[in-house]
Amino acid sequence: MKQGLLVILTGCSGAGKKTIRRRLALENNARIYCPLYTTRLPKKKERQGVDYNFVTADGFASYAQQGKFLLSFQEDDANYGIDKEATEKALQEGKIVLIDVSHPIAKELRNTYKGMYTLTIDIVIPGDEAVEKRVKHGLRGLSPYQVHKAIMEACEDNKDTADYDVLLNNYDLKRTIKRCSQAIQGRVSYIEAIEEGKEPRETTLFSQLEDLRKHIDLLYQIKDERKASSNLRSIAVHYIKAFKDSKKYRALLVKATSKEEYERIISDMQNHL
Q1: 37 and 142 share one domain
Q2: Which residue from 2, 92, 216, 231 has the highest number of Cβ atoms inside 10 Å of its Cβ?
Q3: Coil, helix or strand for 193?
Q4: What's the domain count of the chain?
């Protein structure tokens, strides 16, 4: 690629975006994470310069005044800043830069970095799982107030989404990481094909399936399961006309009666691209 790819992993607290980011970086040395600066104290097992750059409030303010941050924000009574120089240097070197942030920050980043060199992956989980994960975090040191606040916010967080390219339901971590890798590689292949003046057929098909996912998600939000499934039987087939074995998948899509079934079929199709 002529320049790097910025991958923004976003989602509510407890969705697993930090874990996914760490695993994605371990899988491929072309993927890097530029540690954010923060004024909060390190949690257990967090390392200086690896997980975050931990600084004092005065130090953070000084860095902000010097223009060190691409973007700075406040969450949970602590300040965070994205290292501008490190991020832009990595992108200039053609690296895949991984950043995990909340929905509002993801939206701000997308306003700064637009176009095909930015990929936003929104990680969602069922509200009850979000609550359970936040309670477990609370048992590891959050105050009772913070736990209560987290529980109140957990289900609401999933209602808010960034302007995403890919939406993933993280009910299986290993599978979610695999799909993130597929989405990243798909975007890289797409960019390389565009840069070389070629028609990126496979990645276009991958994008079509992601569009189908968004369509499914929307229908299940505004309709009950029976009506959504009924609508999708006629809509979904239009997304797969260009696919190899389209007749096989069309038969499966027509028989699907739940969001989970559609999800399994789409994942299987993407795995065979």
Answers
A1: yes
A2: 216
A3: helix
A4: 2
Q: How many CA atoms lie within 13 A of 121 on its CB side?
A: 31
CB 206 within 8 Å of CB 240: no
Q: Which residue has the tokens 């257990």?
A: 44
- Final residue of a structural domain among 198, 230, 246: 198
pTM: 0.70
Mean pLDDT for 93-105 is: 93
The pLDDT, as a whole number, for residue 158 is 46
d(CA 104, CA 117): 20
Instruction: Let me know: does 41 contact 55? Beta carbons within 8 Å.
Output: no
- CA-CA distances (angstroms) from residue 232 to 166, 211, 246, 259, 262? 19, 13, 16, 10, 9
Domain boundary among 169, 198, 227: 198
**Structural domain for 36, as ranges:** 5-198
Confidence at residue 140, expressed as pLDDT on a 0 to 100 scale: 52
